[in-house]
């Protein structure tokens, strides 16, 4: 057909994998790595109770303890809406154990191979979803009673063990008023959990220890303030969302949806006072209300356009790739309509992973998981 795949900007969810595969150096040694077709799986995210609107997505790391209900390589997804599609009322985390094959008989919007890992008593599970290597899952929530901003209540962070049992619920009117997304600096027996709060336009850091006493929060610090935040009929609320932590520099990158920009907070792992947003890293006409944020295997950053800001019907539901210094690299879409791109996750430290890239299609209630070949880190 004479199409230059490097320059395509509107493709299907599975087409996303083709662009990544083509754009990364593909000189490989084995027959399987020489294949044209990417290794991937697509599954519905709808559990038995009918929850809709998948938000967060996270890989279970390779060093996660075995013997529980989830295992290394599994992919977790948090649901924000209930079966009636009311925002802030979903209560489930589902898990997908990828096999490398397309889930048989799974159609978009129908229950598939993903099964319920955790059923919460707290409603409105958000993009704030992460997994600690010592055996805990962290998820945030922002509940409503009728799906509107008028009935929204303060959110919490829930800590869940490897068997899907609630360990503790963390709440704080200053540091955790509306957990919307999170990033984890995992150091084994201790960790830092960075949390964005959509209602107050702030970012907090929780320092935690994990040992004989279990999961213990040792410090809470507000490290960034001043991000634009406002109610939104389509998205419930717009505020700081995706977070990505660069441990080599101590920098926390923040996708601020309402600001339509990406900021960087310096010394995020050490600071004891809050900065006003941090410094601007990436502002571009390619941004359309950035949500989730993650590092790609090549060292670039990926963000998901939610289309609530600067929407363009010619560029719906896009994942945008850019460098840590703010240079635009490329964009591809995960759905033909707007509002589909939401959660994005990568597995960066796994050796020989079965899959290392996952993206949510919020329109179809689908999860697409793909193996993307890695290259030397690019700045």
Model description:
This protein is mostly beta strands and 379 residues long. It has one domain (41-362): 6 Propeller (Neuraminidase), CATH 2.120.10. The chain is 3% helix and 42% strand. It has one helix at 13-23; strands at 40-44, 52-59, 75-81, 92-96, 115-119, 125-132, 136-141, 156-161, 166-170, 179-186, 190-197, 202-211, 214-225, 230-232, 236-238, 240-246, 251-256, 261-265, 275-276, 279-282, 290-295, 301-305, 318-322, 328-333, 341-346, 357-361, 366-370. Strands 10-11-12-13-19 form a 5-stranded mixed sheet, with no helix packed on it. Strands 1-27-26-25 form a 4-stranded antiparallel sheet, covered by helices on one side. Strands 2-3-4-5 form a 4-stranded antiparallel sheet, with no helix packed on it. Strand 6 (125-132) and strand 7 form a beta hairpin. It is globular and about 50 Å long. The protein starts with 12 loop residues before the first helix and ends in a 9-residue tail after the last strand.
State the separation between the terminal residues, measured CA to CA.
Answer: 33 Å
Query: What series of H and E elements makes up the topology?
Result: HEEEEEEEEEEEEEEEEEEEEEEEEEEE
Radius of gyration: 19 Å
Strand count, sense and barrel status of the largest sheet are: 5 strands, mixed
């Amino acid at each position: 057909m004479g199409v230059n795949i490097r320059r395509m900007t509107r493709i299907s969810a599975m087409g996303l994998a083709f662009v990544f595969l083509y754009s990364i150096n593909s000189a490989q040694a084995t027959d399987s790595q020489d294949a044209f077709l990417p290794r991937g799986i697509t599954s519905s995210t709808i559990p038995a109770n009918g929850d809709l609107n998948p938000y967060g997505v996270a890989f279970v790391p390779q060093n996660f303890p075995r013997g529980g209900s989830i295992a290394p390589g599994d992919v977790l997804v948090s649901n924000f809406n209930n079966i009636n599609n009311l925002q802030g009322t979903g209560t489930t985390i589902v898990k997908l154990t990828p096999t490398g094959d397309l889930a048989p008989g799974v159609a978009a919007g129908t229950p598939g191979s993903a099964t319920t890992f955790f059923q919460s008593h707290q409603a409105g599970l958000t993009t704030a979803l992460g997994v600690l290597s010592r055996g805990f899952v962290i998820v945030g929530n922002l509940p409503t009673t009728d799906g509107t901003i008028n009935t929204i209540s303060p959110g919490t962070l829930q800590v869940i063990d490897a068997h899907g049992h609630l360990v503790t619920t963390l709440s704080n009117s200053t540091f955790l008023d509306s957990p919307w997304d999170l990033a984890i600096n995992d150091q084994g027996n201790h960790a830092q959990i960075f949390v964005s709060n959509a209602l107050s336009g702030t970012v907090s850091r929780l320092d935690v220890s994990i040992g004989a006493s279990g999961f213990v929060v040792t410090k809470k610090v507000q490290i960034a303030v001043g991000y634009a935040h406002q109610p939104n009929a389509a998205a419930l609320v717009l505020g700081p969302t995706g977070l990505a932590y660069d441990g080599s520099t101590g920098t926390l990158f923040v996708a601020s949806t309402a600001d339509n920009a990406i900021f960087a907070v310096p010394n995020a792992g050490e600071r004891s006072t809050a900065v006003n947003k941090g410094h601007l890293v990436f502002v571009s006409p390619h941004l359309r209300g950035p949500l989730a944020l993650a590092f790609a295997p090549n060292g670039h950053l990926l963000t998901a356009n939610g289309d609530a800001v600067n929407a363009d019907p010619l560029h719906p539901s896009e994942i945008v790739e850019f460098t840590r210094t703010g240079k635009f690299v490329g964009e591809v879409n995960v759905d033909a309509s707007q509002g589909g791109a939401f959660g994005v996750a990568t597995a960066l430290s796994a050796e020989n992973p079965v899959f290392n890239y996952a993206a949510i299609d919020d329109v179809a209630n689908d999860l697409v998981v793909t193996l993307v070949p890695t290259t030397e880190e690019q700045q």
